[in-house]
Amino acid sequence: MLQQTLTIRNKLGLHARPSALLAKTAGLFKSSITLTSGSRSVDAKSILGLMTMAMPCGTELTISAEGPDEKAALESIVELFENRFGEEE
Fold this sequence. Notes:
The protein is an alpha+beta fold and 89 residues long. The protein has a single domain (2-86), classed as Histidine-containing Protein, Chain: A (2-Layer Sandwich), CATH 3.30.1340. Helix content is 34%, strand content 26%. It has helices at 16-26, 47-52, 70-82; strands at residues 2-7, 32-37, 40-43, 60-66. A 4-stranded antiparallel sheet has the order 1-4-2-3, covered by helices on one side. α1 runs antiparallel to α3 (70-82).
């Protein structure tokens, strides 16, 4: 299993569009991908689960990937966060 801790940097946090993009990207991989913030964890392939986390800008979270393509999955998701999900701020 691979893990990485990230901070949400886009101004509006993990709202509907980034959640959809994250779930879509996670769904491309066979690995199990989980986001954990505080004591709550959700399946990154579930847009509903991601939206219920209500993670604003500045939230620190851990991404975990486990499976046959875990390295590629983690790299793709980290890239989304680093690029602020394509948002300006």
